[in-house]
Design brief:
Elements: H1 3-26, H2 37-45, H3 51-58, H4 62-74, E1 78-83, E2 86-94, H5 96-117, H6 122-144
Antiparallel strand pairs: 1-2
Length: about 140
């Protein structure tokens, strides 16, 4: 493995841990974390989806989704309704309590993006985003084989 590959893996891991620490700290007042806030944002755009759909959208396994959704239900941020088309599944919806904090969650997220982007021009940022999307696509392709 060459140094660039080692740097890519190491930097990606370090950046993830930094983001986790940041989001956990900033969202603590809502009892949310890096593991739970993406569900709130995803449901704000896709209310009525089920656990399997949200797992696919967030690229996480079903057990991780089950744990996070259970936590959000216990916090009063999400409620579920039985799916009339599939009695084994539930549709997920945000409560008013969750809808009320979405602007603050977005503010925390946007502040993190600003922190990460300091000192980089738009072209570098776009190139980095394009690379990361391609890397994600390649990783997903490999895992689906």
């Amino acid at each position: 493995m060459n140094n660039k590959a080692i740097d890519l893996i190491g930097l990606n891991g370090c950046l993830y841990r930094c983001a986790q620490t940041y989001f956990d700290r900033e969202l603590k007042k809502f009892n949310l974390s890096m593991a739970t806030y993406p569900y709130v944002l995803s449901l704000s755009k896709n209310e009525g989806i089920n656990q399997n759909e949200i797992s696919r959208k967030l690229y996480v396994d079903k057990s991780m989704s089950a744990k996070s959704i259970k936590k959000l239900i216990s916090l009063g941020y999400v409620h579920k309704k039985e799916d009339k088309e599939d009695a084994r599944a539930y549709k997920l919806y945000l409560t008013d309590k969750a809808k009320d904090i979405i602007p603050q969650i977005l503010e925390v997220r946007d502040r993190w993006i600003d922190i990460l982007s300091q000192g980089s021009d738009d072209e570098k940022i776009e190139t980095s985003i394009d690379f990361l999307w391609k890397a994600l696509e390649n990783g997903k392709d490999e895992l689906s084989n």
